[in-house]
Amino acid sequence: MVKMRDVAKLANVSVATVSRVLHNPETVKEATRTKVLNVIDELNYKPNMLARQFRRNETNIILVVVPSITNTVFSGIIEGIEYEAANHGYRVLLGNTNRKVENEYNLVDLLKKRQTDGMILLSERMDPNYIKSLSEEYPLVLATAYIEGLKVPSVSIDNVSSSREAVEHLIRLGHREIAHITGPLQFAISKGRYNGYRQALMQNNIEVRNMLVQEGDFTFESGYNQMMKLLAIEKAPTAIFAANDEMAMGAVKAAKELGFDVPRDIAVVGFDNITFSSKFDPAITTVAQPLFEMGQKSMKLLLQQIQGKPMLKSQYILDCDLIVRDSCGGKIKEKVMNEEIST
After folding, report:
1. Structure letter (DSSP) for residue 124
2. Distances in Å between the alpha carbon of 173 and those of 5, 211, 275?
3. pTM of the full predicted structure?
């Protein structure tokens, strides 16, 4: 079956240009439009009729697919999406998948049946090739995750460099036995944060010990359980970098139950800067994602597609900030400095 990307390749134009020729021909230069139409005839391309009539049957509703509405990271992004959507007369339909990929595939039917004008994915669970194919036929934005090599409109952060900065902060405090509680490593977000952790250690000539890396699932419970394992190791870590704040909080709870003081005995750093991280005891040092801005940018990118406007740029990586709080004090560094002075 001939697809839109086949037409784009032979005509030497972007998929977006082919889409505009089909949906908004008046926005394309005559020479380019003629070239694309000739290739369509040559390949006998039959556009998806649902997609061809997409613009003629607007619902003014956009679908946001979210793995879990209880996760405050997603609620922060959704707030930005809803703000931007409301400014342009759109309503947001939330599709909560409860972390089940089969539910994501089911929700796609709403897009294919024209019950929504576009979709923002706050998940990377579906097959990347399927996501790419969808993006060639329908307005779609992938938010939160950047998948290397996947040419899909996306809004994300640099998980590698942000995580590297967080771990380097611990190293500057004097820590060398630094553990990492990862997210599920089949996901690009978790891999990126793990790679940032590794880079920070390697660039500071610190051995990456496999025993100090434990895989969690982004829940408070997994942070608690993995911390229990880490503190049972003979040469236990003096610092923990957790791939999100919920796991960081679970790690703190485990440490306290075992009689450790945080941060005097063990430092903890999280990721996301969820609202409760500043109210937790101790307040969590964390990497702050620009959640509201991510939502806004995702909606703006989706609107460009819905309206058939050319996209000069389709992939955006937003900046993060390291927020230093009470969960990783400078005790280790002070101890090292005092030992150096005494010798």
Report:
1. -
2. 51, 22, 25
3. 0.78
- CA distance readout (Å), 126 to 68, 100, 119, 249: 15, 10, 14, 29
Is 98 in contact with 128 (CB distance < 8 Å)? Answer: no
In whole angstroms, give the CA distance from residue 343 to residue 340.
5
Q: Which residues of 97-128 are buried (b: 16+ CB within 10 A; e: fewer)?
A: bebeeebbeebbebbeebebbbbbbbbbbbee
- The number of CA neighbours under 13 Å toward the Cβ of 291 is 18
- Kindly report whether the peptide bond that precedes residue 263 is cis, defined as omega within 30 degrees of 0: yes
Beta strand 154-157 with 315-318 is: parallel
- The β-bridge relationship of strands 178-182 and 154-157 is unpaired
Give residue 19's pLDDT.
79
Residue ranges of alpha helices (H) inside 62-175 are 72-87, 101-112, 128-137, 159-172
Instruction: Report residue 207 as tokens.
Output: 């051995």
Instruction: List all residues 6 or more positions away from 191 whose beta carbon is below 8 Å from its beta carbon.
Output: 185
Residue 28 confidence class, pLDDT cut points 50, 70, 90: confident
Cα Rg for the chain, rounded, in angstroms?
A: 24
Asked whether the CA dihedral 308, 312, 314, 316 is positive or negative, the reply is negative
Closest C-alpha among 267, 313, 308 to residue 118: 308
Residue 335 pLDDT more than 70?
Answer: no
Instruction: Give per-residue pLDDT as tens, 171-183.
Output: 999 999 999 999 9
What sign does the CA torsion over 18, 136, 143, 86 have? positive
